[in-house]
Every structure is written in structure tokens, then in C-alpha cells.
Amino acid sequence: MIDKSDDEILLIFEEISNNFKRSNQYFDILYDSTSIVRITKSRSEETISVNAKKSGIVARTLLDSWHELAFQDESDLKNITKKLPKGTDKGDAIAEYDGWKINKEIKTKIDPSTIPMNEKIKKVRELFDYIKNYDKRIINPIVGYGEGLLTRIFVNNEGCQLRQVLPRIRLFIQPVAKEGSKIDFDYFSIGAEQGYELIDEVFNKNLDQIIQNSLDMLKAENPPSGKIPIILDADMAGLIAHESFGHGLEADQVLRDRSYLKEYLGKKVASDICVICDAPNIDGQYGSYFFDDEGIRAGKNILVKNGILKDFIHNRRTASVLNSVPKGNGRRESFAHPVFVRMTNTYFEPGDYKIEEMISEIKNGVMLIRGYFGMEDPLGGGMQCTSKKGYLIENGEKTKLLKSITLSGSVLELLQNIDAISDDELSLRPGTCGKGEEDFVPVTSGGSYVRVKSALISPG
Fold it and tell me: How far is CA 55 from CA 2, 33, 52, 111, 354, in A?
């Protein structure tokens, strides 16, 4: 446990950093403190998990490779200069950036830490009971609540002195419905860098519709199969941007020859109207922050513009090797995990079509709603994404509600077949992304409505 004030930590970090001359080697040190509350309730169980505060420090230096030292006991601070190796003339092993300073703490309307735990549990139970009693066909409401408070303090020998405090909150609702032999559901997920006020907003405004969406799924029909025109809602578009396309843009994968996109930099990968971005600097989003875990200022990375692949997603090392500029995508799950290249808020930028116009121009097609599952294939460029539901489009009108729909085929073929993107406001949904099967970090993905001239679909 690190039992010092943030100001004390900054001062100690600066003193340690001064022992490593930048011309000889790059050095940085990160303090990480996380508090987490999770409450989940379903018909079969109720789980409550509280981690009041877990903190630690990781220091590293780059010579011919990274050398890291991570610990939780503050007495180990004195060992950093002893255990990390000293170098000579290794400063150019990685690109140097101007140092900068920031001290930001996101304020909430209702600080979750001021709400007693029994009140949070009571609120989750109230949500559960309301959904369960809404209609006898609701057989298993699932309610998940999560909150976290992240503090990160970063200092390096380039002059960075950085501190950020980020509150995150998330709510998941899945009312499972049954009628006769049919069982189905829809779901709702929301999350942001916000406070407890988010929960009250859902309870007061959206809950009835969330439940009704699940009940409506009992009457949904099977979707068609084959290559037909489709429209993706913002959630499905985000699933494509992140899961199917974004993982192939992670520059560590590129350097390992594990990305099919390695040869496409500066080349056409999508239709002319496509702009795809990753931007950790969007205010209030679940995947946002002011700086990454390597001290890089969060910025907007335009990955695809006018259909051309403009850049990969970088951390400090990959940007240095590939002669690019990092935008803040070097992320750790915690001090005890390594830095990887990671996405943040990944999305299609809105276009200039009206969604009504996009639908009206389709004679026979399908609209895919609510991303449910996506499989990454950064090596082969294949795609398999499933929506939770959809709608049949007949003669320019949205008609029958459909069950889950799987979209498959080539990612680049789909992107190049996009012929319309709606002018709806950018919509992002929260999630958690792992590197492989571990190292999980908060992200969002989204966009607006995207129309594809022809795509392969089948029942999900």
C-alpha cells in the first residue's frame, strides 16, 4: 500500500527521475490507485465485490529493451535507482518528446463514494424487482452495477509531471423473457466518466422501454441469409470499427507481422466517405483520459480518412520504430500489468445522410441493431460480428423485428462497400477490451448509421 499524498508522490517521483539522465536513457515512473465496486443481481444469485483501494508503482527504463520494477510497498521506492540498470548514450533508443504538466480531476454531480453501500445494493434490488414485476413473462432480470475511481500520477525524465483522477460508472440490464417455449432478451448498457446520477437517469427515463424491448423479442422472426444491402446502427458500426478493424491497426501486432493491414498504410481500405478514428480525448466517455500510461497527451488519431489508411495505433515504442506520433494508446490494466498498444474510443465519424433516406433507398435489406458479439482476426482480415436484433427493410420501409443476425466475410470488402453514413450525433457504448484473454481496459466504440451496399448475413 502506498500511504502518501499525491503531492508527496509527485515530489518523490521527481527526485528519483533526476537520477536518470535523458541523454543516457529514457525513464518513467507511474503511480496507480484504483477503487472498485461491483454489484450483480439475477434470479439465481447476488454478488457484491468491493476493492476499497489497490495501489502500486511501476518504474521502467529503456536501454536495449525495457527494464521494469513494480511494487506495492512504498519502502521499495528507495530500490528503484539500485535495481534499474544505468545506461550510457542510450537516450536515442526511443523518440523524445517535450515534457508537459497537467493536474486534472473529473468532478461528478453525485460522487458515488458519498452513497452508502447499502443504498447501492438497495438500488440494484429495486431495479431487479421493478423489472421482474413489470410483466410475468420476465423470468430472469439481470442487473449489473459497477463503479471505479482511478488515480494515475506519472513522471518521466523528459519533464512530465502528470496527475489525473477519473471516475467511471457503468450499468448493465438484461431482462430475459419467456412465452411458451420461446426465450429471448434485449439488453441495455451505459457507462461514462460520470457519477451516481447516471443510475437515477436510467431508472427515471428509460427502464420501461428497456423491458419492453426484451418482451418484443419474443415476437421476432428469423432473419434472411445471403448477400444483401444492410444498415448498421451505431453500436454495430462500433463493433466493426473496434473488433473487426481496430485490432489489426495495433502497431505492436504490425511489428510482429500479425496484421493483414501492415501493407495497407497510405492505401485505400474503405469507401471514400469513411472516416474512422480512435480518440481518448473525448470528454466524459468511458474510454477517455487526459494522458496514457506512458505520459502521452490524449489526442485524436484519424486512422482512415476518405477511405485511405492514414496511421496505426501506437504506444511510445511502436511510434518510434515506425516513425509516427503517438496519440495516447499506451495503456496498462494496472501497475502490475505491462504497457500494450490499446484502443480507447474507436468510431466511424458521422456522415451527411439522413437515416430515413438511407432506409428509403433499399428495396430488400436488413438493419442490424445492438452489437452483441465480435471475433477479431487481425492476421487474416476476416469478420464475424453478431447483432442482438434487427429489422427487415422492405420497399424502403423498416418492417419486421428480427432475431440476432451474424455478419461475416472480409473486413475490407465491407468497408469498401459502404455507400452512406448518417448525420446522427456520434453515439458511443462502453465496453471492456482485453489483449488476448487478459489485460482488460475500459473502451467505447460507436458511430452513427452505416449503410453497406452488399454484405453476407445469416441467422445469429
Answer: 6, 4, 10, 20, 48
CA within 13 Å, CB half, 247: 20
Angle at 292 between CA 290 and CA 297, to 5 degrees: 55
| Residue 198, CA distances (Å) to 147, 172, 284, 345, 368 in order | 11, 12, 12, 19, 27
- A 10 A CB-CB count for 396 gives 15
Closest CA to 436 of 222, 163, 202, 253: 253
Catalogue all structural domains in the chain, each as residue range(s) with its CATH number.
Answer: 6-219 (3.30.2290.10), 226-459 (no CATH)
Report the greatest alpha carbon distance in the chain: 74
DSSP state of 255: H
Distance between first and last Cα of the chain: 47
Residues 6+ apart with CB under 8 A from 375: 243, 383, 384, 385
> What are the CB-based long-range contacts (under 8 Å, 24+) for 22-25?
22/91, 22/96, 22/157, 22/158, 23/89, 23/91, 24/86, 24/87, 24/88, 24/89, 24/90, 24/91, 25/61, 25/62, 25/63, 25/86, 25/87, 25/90, 25/91, 25/93
> Which DSSP state fits 385?
E
CA–CA distance, 68 with 50 (Å, rounded to integer) = 29
Alpha-carbon distance of 208 to 353, in angstroms, equals 31
CA distances 437 to 371, 382, 405, 433, 440, Å, are 20, 19, 25, 9, 8
What is the C-alpha separation between 234 and 255, in angstroms, rounded? 31
| Residue partners of 133: CB distance under 8 A and separation at least 6 | none
Each residue's pLDDT tens digit in the chain (460 positions)? 688 899 999 999 999 999 999 999 999 999 999 999 999 999 999 999 998 889 999 999 999 999 999 999 999 999 999 999 999 999 999 999 999 999 999 999 999 999 999 999 999 999 999 999 999 999 999 999 999 999 999 999 999 999 999 999 999 999 999 999 999 999 999 999 999 998 877 776 789 999 999 999 999 999 999 999 999 999 999 999 999 999 999 999 999 999 999 999 999 999 999 999 999 999 999 999 999 999 999 999 999 999 999 999 999 999 999 999 999 999 999 999 999 999 999 999 999 999 999 999 999 999 999 999 898 889 999 999 999 999 999 999 999 999 999 999 999 999 999 999 999 999 999 999 998 778 999 999 999 999 999 999 999 9
